[in-house]
Structure formats: C-alpha cells, structure tokens
Design brief:
Layout lengths: L2 H6 L5 H5 L4 E3 L9 E5 L1 H7 L3 H5 L1 H7 L11 E3 L3 E3 L2 E3 L7 E8 L5 E7 L16 H16 L6 E13 L3 E11 L5 H9 L3 H14 L10 H23 L1 E2 L21 E2 L23 H20 L3 H30 L8 H18 L3 H12 L4 H4 L5 H12 L5 H7 L7 H12 L4 H10 L30
Antiparallel strand pairs: 1-3, 2-8, 4-5, 6-7, 7-9, 8-9, 10-11
Length: about 475
Amino acid sequence: MSDVARSTIAFEGQFARYFPEMAVPWRADEAPEPRLVALNRPLAVELGFDPDFLSSPEGVRLLIGNAVPEAATPVAQAYSGHQFGWYSPRLGDGRALLLGEISGADGKLRDIHLKGSGRTPFARNGDGRAVVGPMLREYIVSEAMHALNIPTTRSLAVVRTGSQVQRERLLPGAVLTRVASSHVRVGSFQYARAGNDLGLLRRLADHAIERHHPSSDREPNRYLGLLQDVVSVQATLVAQWMLVGFVHGVMNTDNMTVSGETIDYGPCAFMEGFDPGAVYSSIDETGRYAYRNQPLVAEWNLARFAESLAPLIHEDEEQAVSLAVESLKGFREQYSAAWFAGMKAKLGLPERIDDDVASPLVDNLLVLVQEARADYTSFFRVLGKAARGQAEPARGMILDLAAFDAWLDRWRTLKPDADAMDRVNPIYIPRNHLVEEALAAATEGDVVPSERLLEAIFDPYKERPGLEKFAAPAPESFGPYRTFCGT
C-alpha cells in the first residue's frame, strides 16, 4: 500500500476475529480494468477517507478489494435465512465480502462491504459477479433512503471491473462498495442457533448488544432486552418504508439487520399509483412481500429471531417462549404508533390531536387515494398546497370529488400546517422510470442521467426549478414495472 493509503485508511477485522466460525477468509477477484462509475464523496469524507485518493487508480482498487490494507481481513460471512418462507441453513455471502470495519470521523464503527466481488464458498450455483445496473440501483435507492431520513446501509462507490458478465446478454461487470453499521442479520442468529453452539450464539448476541443496542445491557434480562430493542427498531423502520411507499421486495430473514438499517436493494421500488397489493419483484410470484404485507412479514421475521435467541432468554424452553411471545406483541403496537404518527405528520396535524378525530381522516383519505390509484408521492405533496387554499391539484388526482371535498372541509377545520407537511412529504424520489433510464445509460457508459437523478433525490423535500421531470410519475407507456436482483 502507498503512504497515502496507509495514512488515510485504518481497517479493523472485528467480525473476522470474533466469529471465525462465521467468517471464511477470502479475496476479491482481480478486476482487469477497474473504472469508477460513481463515488459518494460526502460519505467518503464522513468516513474519514480522502475522496481524491479513492478516485485514484490505487483508491479504486481498494474500493473493489484488489488492494487490501495490511490490517484488513476480508471474509465471506456465513448466515442462514428464510427465503420466501423456505429455510436455507447455509446461505452466506455468495458474491460479497466484508473488507473490515473502520471508525469514521464521528468515531462510529462501520462495515466496508463489497457486492459482486466474485465467487465465494457460499456461491452455490451463482457466478459471484454483479453488473452495473443493479449495483447502481442500490447506490441510488440507498442514498435516496438516507436523504429521506430512513435508516439504511449506504453506498460509497460503484466500480466497473472491465470484465463482461453473462446475464440475458453480456453486460459490464461491477462491484458495489457498501457501508453499514454492521452486516449482522436475523439470519446470522439463525445460523448460530442451527449449530446448537450456545457459546457462539451468546458471543453474537453480546456483540449485537455492544455495537447496536447497549441499552439492552441495563435490562434485568439482557437478551430479552436485545429482542425488544430489535423489535422496536424494525417496527419503526417498516413504518417509515410504508409512509414513503417503499416496497423492499425481498424481505427474507437474511435481509433483516439487527441494527435496524434497510439492507439489500435488489428488486425494490417506490410505489407510484397507490395500491396496497403492489409487488415489483420478478421473483415474488405469490405477493408474499407486497407493500401491504411488509409489517406482517417483519413480524414473522422477528419471530424467527426470537426462536434463535430463546436459549439465551431463559434456560427453561417454556418460559423462554412465553417471554419472547410477550415481547413480540410489542411489534404491532409500536409499528401502529409509528405509522399513525407519520400519517398525522403527512397531513400536517398536530401530535396532540385526538386519535378519534385523526384516525377516520387517515382511513377515509387512503380509501379515496386507492380508488383513484393516485400517485402516492405526488398526492401528499400537493396536499400541502390544499392546506394553503389551492385544492385543485389534489382534487385533480381523486375520482370521488364529492367525498374528497367533504374530507377537505373536515381536514381544514383542524388547521393543517402546510410547511410541516412539506418537511415530511418528499417531492423527489427515485422514480422507477428514471431509475431504469439512469441504469440503462450507465450500462452504456453514460453516467449523466444517474448524476442528475442523484442531485434531485439528495434534497428530496425542497422544490427546485429545472427538476420538474424528477417529480413527475412515469408515463403510461412505461407500463407495469418489474425489478430483478441481478444474480
């Protein structure tokens, strides 16, 4: 490594050191001609990296794991998981590597992780590679989620490898450099539990408490406290998804973090026309992970987490189950409270308003929006104009005008705060047609569309002239939307 690299990068190998049973030392495939597609310079600075170094040939090689710092121990992580309800005891990082952990400028420890870096012992039948489109999708959508103040993994860079990858056709290969509070998942606990290694399970739980949920340590039963904390952060997270119309698309237990960050932006999308049954994943044939099912699936995943933790919660199985079930009951209550508070904010209503007044307003409005298949993001944004006396933009999106006018009269008597509405109802999201346009262009070497899209979504709440196309729904010609995971 060069002197610049040594002076700016300090990697730790905590996971590799603490959990050798769950970490296979591995190296990324060598890229013949690595070339930067996107670099998140603000995030680089936040992490303590020199963005100019990361843009250099040696920095790009670091970003894809071809130039490994001396202290780094790249590993493929082992984990289990329920995929679409079916249990797989041995999943793991089939095309990914954890380079190691770094302490950012704020002192917080974060994982630096690669996707598309080549086959590992967990690859099964996959080729271990990724292509530009899906990796840039994760970059765009994860950074949009961050801008929307939703807990998420972040994207530091996308790098072309210079090799071609066979999918439906030959496509340019790429590696995503991802940043997370950690990559410890519900599936990680399932893996430790499946091996009946209570020592490993306890070490993993202690690690999760220390790194993500230190308040659990103050509880009489620290492992029950861990369960309750993970239930809480996931309830809040999924409520935030629902409030912005985000559909994850692949809510397997190996894609649920214990930190409460959104992870794995494969077949994901933002809903446009309001449809509770919206499904965008090409592989979700039964609609298991449809928009309306996300809270139920999160609760189901958390039950699998509780099953894994049970031996630590209490040595008596019956008592462990009883305590876990009681803790899981908190999910619905906390999710409902977070979602309802968020909906009141979207309508500009004060927090103190009586629920008996606010609840019918929310329910009745969503019925009208669903009937009209109104664009979810646009509708709530123009509703802020209705709070200022300009009702026509919102009326133009609803079919039952008599019912909507009656709703408006009831709502306006509560004096909704239009400025507060604009602070929580985004105008710019990663519109599906614009994402596809950006990915297609980047695949051919043109990054301008993705850069313009990122410019819009980095500040999603402030309307700016010249960005009208980024606020508009997809044209009818775009048709039904399906996304693919890229493997």
